[in-house]
Amino acid sequence: MPPGAIFLHSSTAAPIGVFDSGVGGLTVLRELQRQLPHESFLYFGDTARLPYGTRSPAEIRQFVREILDWMQAEGCKLVVMACNTSSALALEALRGDYTMPLIGLIQPAARVAVQRGQRIGVIATAATAQSRAYRQALREANPNVQVWEIGCPEFVPLVEQQRIHDPQTLQVAAQYLAPLIEAQVDTLIYGCTHYPHLAPVIQQLLPSSTHLLDPAEAVTRSVQMELEVLGLSHTSKASTVRFCVSHDPQHFSLAIERWLGFQAPVDLIQLPTRSLPSAHFASEAEGVA
User: Fold this and answer.
1) Which keywords belong to this entry (predicted)?
2) Based on the domain organization, do 45 and 30 belong to the same domain?
3) What is the overall mean pLDDT for the chain?
4) CATH number of 177's domain
5) Binding residue per annotation — 21?
């Protein structure tokens, strides 16, 4: 939070906001619900603009601002960026602009990863891999670790299209993982929330001794600690969750049933928009090409 800021939504019953570009963040929501059973959640999937991993940093920051503006207006007491791309490219830039705490995936995952191994691989979207955010966080946690980051742009569309068991998915995964297998990594971080869905495929390709790290568990512990420090933990009722998307709620409803095992209504939301000069998009896009 900004220094001296007054927290606007201090009710313990207020929801925790969770957002991602699509279904990937459901892996984080599932863990949050498991470990924080009395909390309520507001989940947003920016399905109209996925995948984020091929976007420019300026676009991603604009999208995240729009989501955070809406979540703050909805009264969220804390927001989890259940999106590694947003965590890498927008978290630090925007953290000071909001009174509600913002928690990303990268720092919590890095702290756990360095306790498990010294040769750490990261599979991520192109934007996250190019940002080197995981490399920086891992070396801050332990300067002696070796890090390999691989951009995997085809993974998110394959998960969103529910093609996990498609033979092409195995071929794509083998190509992406080959440098990590050659490097003999002992720990692999799922650097995108969509990727835990690919665990059956990834486990076929990696040695059984490789530690597979889903940041969802680490970020949930961070959320729990933050709520306790702020006195915002809620303990008196069962968890509720509201799902919202920016496009095709019917399709997302099917994804909830597939990935979370229950049916839920999904609201279509039109986010408040922020304008950004197109020239700004172009200049930043050139910087990450």
Assistant:
1) Cell shape, Cell wall biogenesis/degradation, Isomerase, Peptidoglycan synthesis
2) yes
3) 90
4) 3.40.50.1860
5) yes
pTM, whole model, 2 decimals? Answer: 0.86
Say if 80 falls within a structural domain.
yes
Residue for token pair 């568990």 = 217
Report the alpha-carbon distance of residue 177 to residue 173 in Å, rounded.
6
Residue 155 burial (C-beta neighbours within 10 Å; 0-12, 13-18, 19+):
buried
To the question of whether residue 84 is assigned a binding role by annotation, the answer is: yes
Q: Exactly one of 76, 152, 192, 244 is catalytic; which is it?
A: 192
What confidence tens digit (pLDDT) does each residue in 31-61 have? Answer: 999 999 999 999 999 999 998 988 999 999 9
For this structure, is 83 an active site residue? yes
The answer to whether 20 is a known ligand-binding residue is yes
What are the two backbone dihedrals, phi and then psi, of residue 50, each rounded to the nearest 5 degrees? Answer: -75, 160
Is 152 in the active site? no
Which residue, of 182, 214, 246, is where some domain finishes? Answer: 214
| Catalytic residue (one of 76, 83, 152, 244) | 83
Number of domains in the chain: 2
85 is in an annotated binding site: yes
pLDDT in tens, 201-236: 999 999 999 999 999 999 999 999 999 999 999 988
